[in-house]
Amino acid sequence: MPKVYLKTYGCQMNERDSEQVAQMLVARGYEMTPEAAEADVILLNTCSVRDMAEQKALGKIGLLGRLQKARPHTVYGLIGCMAQSRGASLLADVPHLDLVVGTQKFHRVADHVDEILRRKMAHNAAMDDLRFPVVDIEAEPGSQETIRDHASVPASAFVSIMQGCNMRCTFCIVPDTRGSERARSIETIVAEVRDLVERGCREVTLLGQIVNLYGRHEFPKVNGHSPFVQLLDAVDAIEGLERLRFTSPHPIGFRDDLIECFGRLPKLAEHVHLPLQSGSNRILKAMHRGYTAEKFRALVAKLRTQSPAIAITTDIIVGFPGETEDDYAATRELTDEIGFDNAFVFRYSQRKDTPAATMEDQIAEDIKEARNHDLLSVVNRHAQQKLQNLTGQIVEVLCTGTSRHNDARLTGRTRGNKIVVFKSAEDFTGELVNIEITETSGFTLYGSNPQLALHPDLQPS
């Protein structure tokens, strides 16, 4: 039975895509392995959002090429966003690379792997060059089926509801790597979620490049509700589902009908990831973000009015071309004012064929690094305080299994998406438990006294 090593870089969408690829290969008789040294097929699912992600993948595939001497039949492949962006040029950059598959061709990966491995195994292993390169990056909208492993499902699962993005932010390569917006029907999404729930899943996260703009071109509003709100209503109504999340949205997609969902849908978790990107109106305009700092501030206020306990996380870019000290100061001030539960802070990274890559006044790396470090200090101060505020509180946790760092402990997340680790003599995987928070460390909460019964005064966290 051939073995496959599959490593994923990037976002939750990439994680879901890797899951699909793995399940297709297993269905063909392949076995997944965490050890690259014993693999007959090595695949890296890549990210192109930032240069560092591309460099990590290229470094990893280069390092893994050293295994070729011992296992010359091994198939090496790069799939996903970087494969879509760079295409055939990767074959020159990576001499041992056999397979390049783009974001709209994941359903073809198993076919290509079968064919390349068959041809390699049929040839003399002593040959110097056993590459039979395949590059498959042509757009094929609507070609991806949803495939699930029917043997088991996790307590929390990702469900892709759409692909692509039409927004054209000046710093972003996603529209080129993922294509234009295209949505699945509400009926097929609901059927997938219902099937997951029937097999033990308790929480789903709906995925899209800009998830809250779901179906805006394909489906009509109904009773003033957008297609995305219609979808949330339909998923929330599924019996047996305990929690509902979505990521990643765009601030311009938060109309009143969506904001109100956080007050009326009981399963919609009190957490939203709301990308700010910059607190400077001048930079936001240059980014083509479509909102101002004032509108962002007002949106946060509306969300907190609708759901006072809501956790808000964000993405912020520092060092965008032309960002002055005053622009950065505006970002720092707004970040401090809002007090996010956490944030991903990124140094601006030039992406080929994006407008920002050729803008004047590119910022020096040392300035980006200084701003990144400074802004993280603001973010971490608020994040740590919010965790400290939960000490002594009882929170509802969906247990997802054993801790990655300690098999003797269980782990899960609160409704506000905070990680909780706790000791228990009983395995609560897949269950909602109430945990008393006793301490914090880093970005993790630690607790004790797991109880299945709901606490009458339980507050979301």
Could you describe the 3D structure shown?
- With about 450 residues, the chain is α/β, with parallel strands linked by helices.
- It has four domains: about 130 residues, Rossmann fold, CATH 3.40.50; about 120 residues, Transcription Regulator spoIIAA (2-Layer Sandwich), CATH 3.30.750.210; about 120 residues, Transcription Regulator spoIIAA; about 60 residues, Beta Barrel (OB fold (Dihydrolipoamide Acetyltransferase, E2P)), CATH 2.40.50.
- About 35% of the residues lie in helices and about 20% in strands.
- It has 14 helices and 19 strands.
- Strands 2-1-3-4-5-6 form a six-stranded parallel beta sheet, sandwiched between helices. A five-stranded mixed β-barrel has the order 15-16-17-19-18.
- The C terminus is likely disordered.
